[in-house]
Design a protein that fits this description.
Length: 87
């Protein structure tokens, strides 16, 4: 773990900090005693940090759609296509 959250004000501090850099309150370090096998649910999957695959796919599709729309609008403007009078 590379950071510690202050319980008083909520600011994120460095893991090695003893006091909060915003409010100055003492940071509590919560630890769990005992070997990992004695902790209920220790075999559970760790929470994935960062953005997931689905978020990446949606972002990629959004960027692709934006680029395609921009290119088609540019081409339509270059060649004088008017969607209102096209009918």
């Amino acid at each position: 773990m590379s950071s510690t959250k202050c319980h008083a004000c909520g600011v994120i501090n460095f893991a090695h900090s003893q006091t909060c850099r915003r409010c100055g309150s003492e940071l509590r370090i919560e630890t769990v005693a005992g070997p990992p096998s004695s902790i209920p649910g220790a075999h559970a999957v760790a929470i994935q940090e960062g953005r997931g695959f689905g978020h990446w796919v949606l972002w990629s599709l959004g960027v692709t759609a934006t680029i395609l729309f921009s290119v088609s609008a540019s081409v339509a403007d270059t060649y004088g296509f008017d969607p209102v009078s096209a009918s």
